[in-house]
Amino acid sequence: MKYEDWQIITVDKVASTNDTVRDYCCEKGQAIALRAIEQTSGRGRRGRVWHSLKGNLFLSLAFEYKPENIGKLVIVSALSLWQTIKNCAPTTNVKIKWPNDILVNNAKVSGMLLEKGEDDYIIIGIGVNIKQAPENKDILYPATSLANEGIVTSSEDFTPAFLQIFSHYFNILQRGEFAMLRKMWTANAKGIGKKIFVNQENIKKEGIFLGIDDDGCLLLNTANGKKKILVGDVFYIEKENDVF
Ligand code: BTN
Fold first, then answer.
1. What are the pLDDT digits (tens) for 36-48?
2. Residue 20 C-alpha to ligand 1 middle, in angstroms?
3. Which atom of ligand 1 is nearest to the CA of 44?
4. Most exposed: 39, 57, 106, 112, by fewest CB within 10 Å?
5. CB of residue 18 inside a 6 A radius of ligand 1
6. How confident is the model at residue 244 (pLDDT cuts 50, 70, 90)?
7. What are the CA-CA distances from residue 43 to residues 3, 52, 220 (Å)?
8. In angstroms, what is the span from residue 244 Cα to ligand 1's centroid?
9. CB contact at 8 A, 60 and 115
10. What is the pLDDT of residues 113-152, one digit of tens each?
């Protein structure tokens, strides 16, 4: 995939770009990047609301991709977003929080929602707090914005920068070189080798974060042995006596 292959569409106001992008992908081999200036019903992972504040990025990509390799694509998407933000601010602390959140100075600045589209289409929804961060008490993890952290960009400029990097890493994936991408993801992820909690539907698992496997799953060394985790929310233990 080349950057030039993307059909970039900008719309004024939609409920969710992940839904609207479905209306645009119909021809075989098409790659659509749909950006909305305003989003009124943003959706987050695991049925949560995504607070979509003015000036932030609401972008959804749709392209053909075999659903069985989705775990690898999650890793590639996160790495691309990490790289785009890091390029804006090379000396700032930018880390990946499994599976695909980006933390700037330890607060969440972005989120991604991957969904299956028609046929073999995949939809990657990307939200980046460019100008503003939600202050609501109902958010799961402390949030920030690029602007709050002194990183000046706009959703308009961020979109092509991200697509360039995503296309590059996606090509590496398609060449079968996932191992290299996994290495880069791991080098820039927060908490590897440390004790973490992973919250799942009704259970909370605790253990040492060993890394990720070839499916993008989190590997957790728990008291009951090594576990492979497909979905969940990670929490770090910043201080030894932090209670969750
Ligand atoms: C998360 O829970 O962290 C994922 C948030 C994903 C938000 C983005 S904003 C663009 C796209 N449209 C949506 O409705 N959600 C995603």
1. 999 999 999 988 9
2. 13
3. 2
4. 106
5. yes
6. very low
7. 27, 9, 28
8. 25
9. no
10. 999 988 889 999 999 999 999 987 667 789 999 999 999 9
Q: 188-195: long-range contacts at Cβ-Cβ below 8 A with a sequence spacing of 24 or more?
A: 188/79, 188/82, 188/86, 188/94, 188/95, 188/96, 189/95, 189/96, 189/97, 189/98, 190/95, 190/96, 190/97, 190/103, 190/106, 190/236, 191/97, 191/98, 191/234, 191/236, 194/236, 194/237, 195/237
